[in-house]
Structure to design on (396 residues):
């Protein structure tokens, strides 16, 4: 004897979420069962309607409240810079750094043939279209520093350079506040290569 | 600038779930945003309709696929024993122990005036009704070994004893496989008091 079927079905769905194992999913589902039906319905509807409720900017493909998004319309941001990221979440740390005041372009992922993600599945064509319209001087590749992010960056570099704009990649190096003793050798190697005159 | 409103709203709802902080809620909501809309709708509807989909046994108040539940109808279980638990989840470890083959009664929580849970909010009246119908010889109080579980157990003991049935409480003691060195003094004290001849 075990939990009723609708509960087991929900537990199964929740375990497919990142970082949610069987135990956590069970705890969450049982908690939901104790919630007032109105609150449960509200949460369920918020999830069911999420993709319809969240607008995507038709210019940069960031998630937004309106289209075009606030980053694309802000007159205080520089039009001649486009920072290319994999996902909308990647914009948040860049904004927090305060080091960037240009426009963005969200690819919607990284090239990964193993996962079936090919260049045509990402918003690359639209990026090239934006650059072709002119006024862009530099494209900053801020895809992740992973194997997929790297190959996406080099693919983009090859596609963007013929359009005669500067293409840059965010720097590799040691994280601020980190300890050499505990750093991996690849990061240390990159930090060595990228050393600068002081 | 931050996430769109429907996303922030969902993040807010998710943080109210147990063990889900702001960071985890954000990660979950952003993952949901990448899910296919059909899967998202399926999950949302499973949550919205959970309390309607899950049946509650009208006899023991356990969650079930049918009413009365399998524990109440199984002819191999003993009618003269009722094990009282706070929540449906508490039945699982008891069943796994293999030490119990009687009926169950789910209170739906524990008495906790601070949280506004009074005896009349729990299925205590229904428990007394079941006992009054006769045939019950022993009521095993298996509420949690917490302050609330303890006061619920002593309240139940007072209510059940006048009906002339044996009332027992599950044993306090050292968990199997545990180390005396790391045990808290209250548990060790209870284990001492509850010592048995070998």
């Amino acid at each position: 004897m075990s939990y009723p079927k609708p509960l087991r079905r929900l537990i199964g769905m929740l375990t497919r979420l990142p970082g949610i194992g069987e135990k956590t999913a069970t705890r969450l589902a049982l908690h939901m069962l104790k919630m007032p039906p109105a609150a449960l319905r509200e949460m369920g509807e918020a999830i069911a309607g999420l993709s319809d409720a969240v607008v995507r900017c038709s210019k940069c493909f960031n998630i937004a409240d309106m289209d075009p998004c606030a980053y694309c319309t802000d007159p205080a941001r520089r039009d001649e810079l486009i920072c290319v990221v994999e996902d909308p979440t990647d914009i948040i740390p860049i904004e927090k750094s305060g080091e960037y005041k240009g426009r963005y372009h969200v690819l919607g992922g990284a090239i990964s043939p193993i996962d079936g993600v090919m260049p045509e599945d990402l918003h690359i064509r639209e990026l090239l279209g934006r650059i072709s319209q002119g006024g862009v001087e530099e494209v900053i590749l801020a895809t992740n520093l992973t194997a997929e992010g790297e190959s996406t960056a080099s693919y983009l570099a090859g596609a963007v350079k013929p359009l005669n704009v500067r293409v840059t990649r965010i720097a590799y190096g040691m994280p601020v506040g980190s300890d050499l003793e505990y750093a991996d050798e690849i990061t240390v190697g990159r930090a060595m290569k990228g050393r600068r005159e002081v």
Notes: The mean pLDDT of chain A is 90.
